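Propose amino acids for all 237 sites.
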């Protein structure tokens, strides 16, 4: 089904509410589906993959997703899920702490318009990929994010992030790609980036960073792409 008709909406409802406990994967990406994610999706207790990207789903992201205890991949990229600072469209992250097997969380391209909760550090220690670009995030990056020590890639580009880059990034020892570009991040580039000896891509352009570029970045021999453009940096390279 790839229609915006009432029949299509009914089909989505049927798919979600009719899922049995033994179902493990649901792929609906790349269609024209509309409507909300029903809280009854938590009945599919064995679901490991939920892929709803590139549709027109709307409403708030339900906290009931946290009841999918076996979930490994949650991808809702490029939909119309929304929120505001009062209700915090990112509050569902707290519920995902129950998903101890979560490896990939992809929410880029939804107008969630909220703030990153401190509970972000309670996400699965297995989390390897976190994509949350263009979500209208209006907050600092909580220092608790350092608990996600198995991250391989972190993408928070094109938001309204403020404050400093937390020094707890030093625990991202497996990190290969990080994109914090096009935000309002302040302060210096933390020398803790120099501890990330698997880092290949560092994107910090279009922020309000100042001070010197840490010379120890030269010790990170895995680096292939470094974007520091459009900041207030001043130093000798």
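Proposal:
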């Amino acid at each position: 089904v790839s229609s915006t008709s009432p029949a299509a909406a009914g089909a989505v409802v049927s798919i979600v509410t009719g899922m049995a406990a033994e179902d493990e994967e649901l792929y609906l990406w790349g269609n024209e589906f509309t409507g909300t994610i029903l809280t009854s999706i938590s009945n599919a207790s064995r679901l490991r993959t939920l892929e709803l990207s590139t549709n027109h789903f709307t409403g708030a992201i339900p906290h009931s997703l946290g009841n999918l205890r076996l979930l490994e991949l949650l991808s809702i990229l490029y939909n119309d899920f929304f929120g505001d600072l009062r209700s915090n469209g990112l509050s569902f992250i707290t519920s995902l702490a129950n998903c101890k097997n979560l490896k990939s969380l992809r929410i880029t391209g939804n107008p969630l318009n909220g703030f990153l909760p401190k509970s972000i550090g309670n996400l699965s220690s297995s989390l390897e990929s976190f994509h949350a670009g263009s979500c209208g995030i209006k907050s600092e990056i909580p220092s608790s994010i350092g608990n996600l020590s198995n991250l391989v890639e972190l993408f928070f580009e094109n938001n309204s992030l403020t404050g400093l880059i937390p020094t707890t990034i030093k625990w991202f020892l497996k990190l290969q790609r990080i994109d914090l570009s096009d935000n309002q991040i302040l302060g210096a580039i933390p020398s803790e980036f120099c501890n990330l000896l698997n880092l290949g891509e560092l994107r910090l352009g279009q922020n309000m960073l100042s001070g010197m570029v840490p010379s120890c970045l030269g010790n990170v021999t895995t680096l292939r792409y470094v974007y520091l453009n459009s900041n207030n940096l001043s130093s000798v390279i």
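DSSP finds two helices and 15 strands in the chain. The first strand starts at residue 25 and ends at 27.
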